[in-house]
Amino acid sequence: MTKPQFLRDFWYGLSSNQRFFIRKLYYLPSDLRDRILGRTHKYVPSRGDIYTGSPANAKYYIKQGELHLQHLKIYIDLQPNDSVLDIGSGVGRSAIALSSYLNQEGSYDGFDVVKQGVDWCNKGLGKDFPNFNFKYVPLFNDLYNTSTLKASEFQFPYEDASFNKVFSVSLFTHMQIDEIQHYFHQIYRVLKSGGLCFSTFFLYDETDEAHISAQKDFNFPHKKEGYRLMNTNVTSGNIAIHKTKLANMISNANLELVTIVDGFWRGQNEAEDRNEYQDIVVFKKP
């Protein structure tokens, strides 16, 4: 077992509260330095409070959100007057960028299973932008939330056909297969006819399954039926799905697969015409 694998297994073995505490303590010196040097931003939480992605200073964090916005514009033709749903809105990484892009005719709704993130967004973006709304949903996730409510039974808190664009970034990489399938059905329900969804995944097929099961530092060694897990003790830690299985799941929800764009998580050079770590998947409601 490599050092990164050992550390990842140790990290996943902690409770969500323990992980939050250790992260905050670890980044405390950096957060103090950011405050002293004036590297903070009204809508960006401190590094220790960023529980998704790689904690970064405010400048880089905003750049990450701007990259998300560019992807939404390129792959699902996001327009300023769109009604948008962000599944797994986190601490507002994407929402910050969208707040300067959506106009008053447009709207943004986001929900997340981590209350700290939702509270942060509501105190900042939600307060300053009336067309931005964030909701906390207490769902069980063995990485983030110990609630007993199941994501596989959760109905999105929105009316049918409420949105013409839906997106999620690094969400389905941390959910179980039955939960993902259920979310696809919910996406179909809340999308308007012709609406598009942008999501990211870890995907594989026969050509790279052996590689992603054994590659150094970031691998999925545990084979299941149509998917692979990074850690069997924390099944929401990271999941990779076979491309054929994903296509069938999308079809089962009466959605249409539009495109798959490979990311560079398998070890390819980022400069090889790829600017997203995870694989991008776009699907639509007919």
From TrEMBL:
Ranges of residues in domain Methyltransferase: 84-195
Keywords per UniProt: Methyltransferase, Transferase
An example molecular function term from Gene Ontology annotations: methyltransferase activity
GO BP of this protein: methylation
Gene3D superfamilies: Vaccinia Virus protein VP39
Residue stretches in coiled coil: none
CDD domains in the record: AdoMet_MTases (cd02440)
Protein name from the UniProt record: Methyltransferase domain-containing protein
